[in-house]
UniProtKB/TrEMBL annotation:
Alphabetical list of Pfam families matching this protein: Glyco_hydro_99 (PF16317)
Biased composition range(s): Pro residues: 303-347
Gene3D superfamilies, A to Z: Bulb-type lectin domain, Glycosidases
Signal peptide: 1-25
Organism from which the protein derives: Cylindrotheca closterium
GO cellular component: Golgi membrane
Protein name in the entry: Bulb-type lectin domain-containing protein
Stretch list, region Disordered: 28-64, 87-152, 292-354
């Protein structure tokens, strides 16, 4: 009996020990699954069936593997409507493809709800909410990765609304950027996905009516919400390079305005989205502040022999000006050769030019300054000559000498009317300067004076223009220094793209032909027309570049491509000009004679964002613009405009300032010296080539 009793006692002890081990094992499982805390009381398992094969286990927990789950099952576990931009690792189709998703991770343990009495059904993503089972957080699988997918609130039903549906990644690329070719069409919920170095982005139209670029859950850029709304149906990059969003009636509700560039591509990176033409030109980019501007300060010495820095003539140090208007003794100046004779008429060819082949640069000149009275507008820098008056011959002579030393071959003079102060000063000062015969000049017709002069339809505005041009003809065309291109006197129209001056009812070819006939001169008209709108997309449908297939003006230029919204903090005028202006100049140069402009700096008295300037940046801009591919239309010369010599109100001047620490840019002679160095490079055909 003792033996039997001993055996019974040992059997009981073994049973108790077995139950204790089972409790410990289950506790460890719970700890691994995160269903209890280390300090939680471990529930008594003696009354529970721990057999995992029985489907009627009550509160027994289970562990499911994602490898055996469908997307719908995973979606039912993790999906929390509305589908947020949130963590980008959750932002494509399902966490199954993106295990780094941390959306909805519980910050503290949640109570375990009871499991359903049946196995987990395989549901479609559009199943009704009532068919979604209640899921325990402990059903999330245990993996070697520390991240677990645990809902932070009660389980969410399978989505039934559009806003709750997952996005469809129609293109997935691992790398620095992805490319979307033209003619492809995409609908709501279809996005293009990019991943690199743990960063993830998508571009497209979300279920929450946002069209844009999203990186790591943050919005980088979206199209204007007032234009892109619930009426959207699809978007595409058209074959002409225009990105367009359309509604169900095929109406365009938003576009980039980049048409007429066949073969363009839409590109996406972690920083921005942009459209690139087949020639590599950037046609459109959002946002504008992402790309970092490289430092212009050299970090090492050049490997080759340095380019000699020119020593400017003594005339760069101004002679003290008298209070009266006596003519100073002439300052010795280098002999300037006349502009090269244009080549004979040839068929149009598009080529990358030799930057030293007949290059001329013309500078905008403003003769409206009154000595010691510069109070009309604010200005940021003090001129080296002080608050000079442009009606003084000594001032005009000094300006000419600086122009000759730096290579400026013509002034482009602001013309507001014969009776205005600017013209009175110009005729009194510049027209009497001893060295005027060594430089050319032409008139910049300030088109704003046409405002309030009637309209083009009844001929009243045309007649006003004729009277203005007749005055310019009578006063200047016969002067030996008046600028001519191919023997034709030059008139430059400022801001022809303005609706008030040159648009509504303006029949360009007919009106300009009539002007030439009535004035008796074959005038060479240049228009300040190109801007960020395509040439054939003017606000009222008028086309100032072409009319019925005919070129309206003889040539085109840009005075200033500035728009506040496109300026990046702290950038130079060179960076802005080459990024924003160069693509537009390149496209126009394929169709018409295009004369680009350079601008060393910009600081407008009206409070616009400033563009800094320095000599290194300005030299880079001169060289790049000189190498702009251009079309040789009927022997069009190689011209580059400088904005400006002395527009102190807008802060674009290259004319020297006094170097005071009170000046915003304190550039002294930097820009004049850079121009002189560039002239030396041209004259000697130096080391720089396109």
């Amino acid at each position: 009996m003792r033996i039997v009793a001993t055996q019974c006692l040992l059997s009981c002890l073994l049973i108790l020990l077995s139950n204790f081990n089972l409790v410990q094992a289950e506790s460890k499982k719970k700890l691994r699954r995160g269903s209890v805390n280390e300090n939680d009381e471990i529930e008594d398992m003696s009354s529970s069936d721990t057999t995992t094969g029985d489907e009627s286990l009550g509160t027994t927990t289970r562990s499911l593997s994602y490898s055996t789950m469908t997307d719908a099952e995973i979606f039912a576990l993790q999906k929390t409507p509305p589908y947020p931009l949130g963590n980008s690792k959750c932002g494509y189709s399902s966490p199954k493809q993106h295990p780094g998703c941390t959306r909805g991770v519980a910050s503290s343990p949640q109570p375990t709800p009871p499991l359903p009495t049946t196995s987990l059904p395989k549901l479609p993503t559009d199943a009704p909410a009532s068919s979604a089972p209640s899921i325990s957080p402990s059903m999330v699988p245990t993996t070697s990765e520390p991240t677990v997918f645990v809902p932070s609130s009660s389980p969410t039903a399978v989505p039934t609304k559009l806003a709750d549906r997952p996005l469809n990644c129609v293109q997935a690329v691992q790398g620095e950027e992805l490319t979307i070719s033209s003619t492809a069409t995409f609908r709501q919920g279809e996005v293009h996905c990019l991943s690199v170095d743990g960063q993830e982005a998508y571009f497209g139209y979300t279920w929450t009516n946002q069209f844009g670029l999203f990186v790591n859950g943050e919005t980088v850029w979206t199209a204007p919400e007032d234009q892109v709304n619930a009426s959207f149906e699809r978007w595409s990059l058209q074959g002409d390079g225009n990105l367009v969003l359309r509604d169900s009636n095929n109406n365009a509700i938003w576009r980039t305005g980049t048409c007429c560039h066949n073969g363009s591509q839409l590109k996406v990176s972690m920083e921005r989205v942009w459209i690139e033409s087949s020639r590599g030109s950037q046609l459109w980019s959002e946002p504008f502040f992402v790309t970092q501007t490289p430092s212009l300060t050299p970090t090492s010495q050049p490997t080759g022999p340095p380019t000699p820095t020119p020593t400017l003539a003594p005339s760069l140090s101004p002679t003290p000006l008298p209070t009266g208007l006596p003519t100073p003794p002439p300052t010795p100046s280098p002999t300037v050769e006349p502009p090269p004779t244009p080549p004979p008429t040839t068929p149009p060819t598009f080529e990358k030019p030799d930057p030293y082949s007949g290059l001329q640069y013309y500078a905008y000149y403003y003769p409206w300054y009154i000595r010691n009275d510069w109070s009309r507008h604010g200005y940021q820098d003090e001129p080296l000559l002080g608050k000079y008056g442009t009606d003084e011959v000594a001032v005009a002579e000094q300006h000419i000498q600086w122009a000759l030393e730096t290579g400026i071959s013509s002034w482009v003079v602001s013309w507001w009317g014969a009776d205005r102060l600017a013209m009175k000063h110009f005729k009194k000062g510049m027209m009497n300067a001893p060295s005027l015969n060594k430089i050319k000049f032409c008139m910049l017709y300030e088109s704003m004076i046409l405002e309030g002069r009637g309209n083009w339809y009844d001929g009243s505005k045309e007649e006003a223009l004729f009277q203005h041009l007749k005055t310019i003809r009578d006063e200047f065309f016969d002067h030996p220094s008046y600028l001519k291109i191919n023997g034709r006197p030059v008139i430059i129209f400022y801001i022809t793209r303005s609706r008030m001056m040159f648009q509504t009812g303006f029949d360009g070819p007919s009106i300009l032909a009539n002007m030439r006939r009535r004035l008796g001169y074959d005038i060479y008209f240049i228009a300040d027309e190109p801007f960020f709108d395509p040439y054939n997309k003017r606000p009222d449908g008028n086309e100032n570049a072409f009319k019925d297939g005919k070129q309206v003006f003889d040539a085109y230029t840009t005075y200033n491509m500035f728009i506040d919204s496109k300026v990046r903090p702290g950038e130079t005028a060179t960076d802005y000009q080459l990024r924003e202006g160069m693509p537009i100049w390149q496209e126009w140069a394929k169709k018409v004679p295009m004369f680009p402009n350079v601008m060393a700096q910009y600081y407008d008295f009206r409070g616009h964002k400033p563009l800094l300037g320095n000599s290194d940046a300005f030299m880079r801009q001169l060289r790049e613009v000189a190498c702009l591919p251009r079309t040789n239309f009927n022997g069009a010369p190689h011209i580059m405009f400088i904005t400006s010599f002395n527009e102190w109100w807008e802060g674009t001047q290259i004319g020297p300032e006094n170097g005071s620490s009170n000046n915003w840019n304190n550039y002294g002679f930097q820009f004049m010296e850079t121009l002189a160095e560039f002239k030396m490079e041209i004259d000697s055909r130096g080391s720089y080539w396109c």
